[in-house]
Amino acid sequence: MKDVSIQRLHRLDLKEIAPLAQESRDEGFRHITRMTDEYESGTNRFDQPGEALFAARDRERIIGICGLNQDPYSMTAGVGRVRRLYVSKSYRRHGVARSLMEQVILEANRHYSVLVLKTDHPIADRFYDSLGFISIGDDDNVSHMLRLDGRSGSRF
């Protein structure tokens, strides 16, 4: 996938992301639609301190997305949350999700001591484990956690 690049988005173009949102809905996933709804309403624009939104592009087309937020469920400072990771079906198994997550982890290292996420999908579970996340079994809001060392670029 030599033409795929990862870019930080400072503004989400809802028309541009619409095909990816539709594809995710067709697969039975609703999290990209929730992301666009929250973005449009202003509920979550990935623009608070320590937050970011990354897109994977094949030339000009967005083929993957992943965000980083301050964890809204944590009562402790220094916890970031991976949000809304999705890669177009035809681009899976080519390192796109890993590249998106590498950027999220690099950014999270600058702001947080812990990175968390929630998934109930077995393939995603194995993917996050492969990135060094630890499975958490007793939390309704967190399925995986990664301790960060605070040095940008230290993991990859």
Descriptive overview:
By secondary structure, the protein is of the alpha+beta class. The chain has a single domain (4-147), classed as Aminopeptidase. It contains four helices and seven strands; from the N terminus they run βααβββαβαββ. The chain has helices at residues 14-26, 31-41, 96-109, 122-130; strands at 4-9, 52-58, 61-70, 79-87, 114-117, 134-135, 144-147. It has a seven-stranded mixed sheet with strand order 1-2-3-4-5-7-6. α3 (96-109) links the parallel β4 (79-87) and β5. α1 (14-26) runs antiparallel to α2 (31-41). The longest helix has 14 residues, at 96-109. Residues 151-156 have low confidence and may be disordered. Residues 4-151 form the N-acetyltransferase domain. InterPro entries: Bact_Acetyltransf (IPR050832), GNAT_dom (IPR000182). This is N-acetyltransferase domain-containing protein. Keywords: Acyltransferase, Transferase. It comes from Paenibacillus allorhizosphaerae.
CATH fold name: Aminopeptidase
- What is the N-to-C order of secondary-structure elements (H for helix, E for strand)? EHHEEEHEHEE
- CATH top level is Alpha Beta
Class inferred from helices and paired strands:
alpha+beta
User: What's the count of strands?
Assistant: 7
Keywords: Acyltransferase, Transferase
Pfam families: Acetyltransf_10
InterPro entries: Bact_Acetyltransf (IPR050832), GNAT_dom (IPR000182)
Domain N-acetyltransferase: 4-151
Could you give a short description of this structure?
With 156 residues, the protein is of the alpha+beta class.
Feature tags:
Bact_Acetyltransf, transferase, N-acetyltransferase domain-containing protein, alpha+beta, globular, 7-stranded mixed sheet, acyltransferase, GNAT_dom, 156 residues, Aminopeptidase
